[in-house]
Amino acid sequence: MQVFSEIYWVFLGLGTLVGAVVIGYMLKNAYKYSDRGGADEKERPKLGEMPTGGGKGKKLFLSLSLSAIIVISLIAWTYGTLLFVEGQTGDQGVDVEVEGYQFGWNFHYLNDDGEYSGVNTTGTLRVPVDTQVNLQITSDDVFHNFGIPALSVKGDAIPGETTETWFKATEAKNYTAHCYELCGQGHSYMEAGVIVMEEEAYNDWYAEQRASAENDSAGNIAAAGV
Ligand SMILES: [Cu+2]
């Protein structure tokens, strides 16, 4: 998800900046108080003598408040971003129930009312590009964990429970989902393809699947003589 790489780059940038300031200040003083440095004999600390700082703790106060400001605003900003990610589940986009089993993935597409639409796939998840995809992850047997690393989305698949999460793909390309919970012999091969389609192509595909699902159920009812 976009926001996670944003958080990553802000932390990396600020960390590098703080590191550069600290190491730069250290090198500056190391030179200043060295034999060849600018400080004269009286200023230079003697071996075994405690350094005497000037400014009555001004430097200490300044560095403490600066670090407090940086750390507190980072915490607030990260927390706000994560709240946004958490609060985004629900009312928009498409809903898919992801069901793990030993050893593969079933996908049940839900309609706008959150009910089964009759469209199901195994081993391949198709989603539209630039659209929020809400996942309801569950399991048919043992603990699994559904994750698409390239899209920064992951959720536990636990029998009898539903984990809700969402993602939004910004490029129409193919990804791979893996299982991230050791679940038995076939665990390492427990993958699913994730096909991100242009919206129109997705809608065509979905309509087609809907139609054939309806034909199937009509056929079943006829065959059962109802
Ligand atoms: Cu698994």
UniProtKB/TrEMBL annotation:
Keywords: Copper, Electron transport, Membrane, Metal-binding, Respiratory chain, Transmembrane, Transmembrane helix, Transport
Source organism of this protein record: Halolamina salifodinae
GO MF annotation terms: copper ion binding; cytochrome-c oxidase activity; oxidoreductase activity
Bilayer-crossing regions: 6-27, 60-79
Location in the cell: Membrane
Name of the protein: Cytochrome c oxidase subunit 2
Domain Cytochrome oxidase subunit II copper A binding: 91-208
A Gene Ontology cellular-component term: membrane
Membrane topology according to the record: Multi-pass membrane protein
Source organism superkingdom: Archaea
GO biological process, one term: ATP synthesis coupled electron transport
Protein family: Belongs to the cytochrome c oxidase subunit 2 family.
